[in-house]
Amino acid sequence: MKLGYNTGYWSAGPPGGVVEAIAEADKLGWHSIWAAEAYGSDALTPLAWWGASTENVQLGTSIVQMSARTPAATAMAAITMDHLSGGRFILGLGASGPQVVEGWYGQPYPRPLERTREFVEIVRTIVAREDRVEFEGKHYTMPYPGGTGLGKPLKSTVHPLRNDIPIYLAAEGPKNVALSAEICDGWLPLFFAPKDNDWYRDRLQEGFDKGGRKTWDDFEVPATVIMIPGDDVETCADFVRPFIALYVGGMGAKGQNFHYDVFARMGFEAECDKIQELYLAGNKNDAHAAVTTEMVEAISLVGPIDKIKDEIEMWKETVVTTMLISGDVNMVRMAQDLFS
């Protein structure tokens, strides 16, 4: 298993300590660094800014939201980033959720798997640069069929450094996880639990069986794992509870919350019901407290160093190929020691 560094989401501003942590990860030969976007900072600008001072790590978006850009704009950014980084760019894509897509971007959300297929196909066609781009789908059509009528098929003026830039798909539902193995080069899980490894392996195998681009030998699964070391497990878990409560309780509507569904599949449906009810009622502190330590430990590494080191061995037996760590430079060094 490889190591990577996730800069995470911004809050009121850029996260502290990132520059030093990235420099250390690059020096230590880590696999990659990643930047995210929700409805604040974007993923590409920080990755370009911070990545400019690196030489070794791959630079990945976790994720670029598809509704934020057209497929052509996304392909242009990928080609540009790949050139500037000397062929180190990874395009991580995701459909996000209806609250962000429709509420923030003002775009329709229905049929996300169908849209993802079309989006990825167009991006690959542009990056391949074999011919002028023409596409007619249910969600995207190039050239645009209305307007002035003057649109015509075009081909990128820039010759891509690589004509096959790797695309990873963020996915949580069973069909979307399978889709990542079918049409992409990697899968980006958000809440991965080693105890559910067999379920995820089966979903990915479904994608490979449909004629996937990759095999188990070269398909990548970078998973963000929260690591909180400390003497007391409960105290460490307290740092993770608000994060889980936000996603299970607040990131989605009742009846349509993909993060809720992930934890429900882990066996925590009753806990998820309680967390969501409290969160949506505005009782955030109670919602945080309702996140059990078992839920935290299912997806995180918390507690004494020896405990974390033992649990890492369990992660190494999963489909995860790269563990993405967040934190300051000391956390990077600690992770390096734990994996040595």
Descriptive report:
- Helix content is 45%, strand content 13%.
- The protein has 340 residues and is of the alpha/beta class.
- It has 2 domains: 2-227 and 301-339, Alpha-Beta Barrel (TIM Barrel); 241-299, no CATH class.
- Strands 1, 2, 3, 4, 5, 8, 9, 10 and 13 form a 9-stranded parallel sheet that branches.
- Helix 3 (71-84) packs across helix 5 and helix 9 crosses helix 10.
List its traits.
9-stranded parallel beta sheet; 2 domains; alpha/beta; 14 helices; 340 residues; TIM Barrel
Overview in brief:
With 340 residues, the chain is α/β, with parallel strands linked by helices.
**Would you report the number of β strands?**
13
Provide the number of structural domains.
Answer: 2
Q: Do you know the CATH architecture of the largest domain?
A: Alpha-Beta Barrel
Gross morphology is: globular
Question: Rg, please?
Answer: 20 Å
Largest sheet: 9 strands, parallel
CATH superfamily of the largest domain: Luciferase-like domain
Percent of sequence in beta strands:
5-15%
Order of helices and strands: EHEHEEHEHHEEEHEHEEHHHHHEHEH
* Overall average pLDDT: 96
The CATH class name of the largest domain reads Alpha Beta
- Given as residue ranges, the uncertain stretches (5+ residues, pLDDT < 50) are none
Number of helical segments? Answer: 14
Helix content: 40-55%
**CATH topology-level fold name of the largest domain:** TIM Barrel
Query: How far apart are the termini?
Result: 11 Å
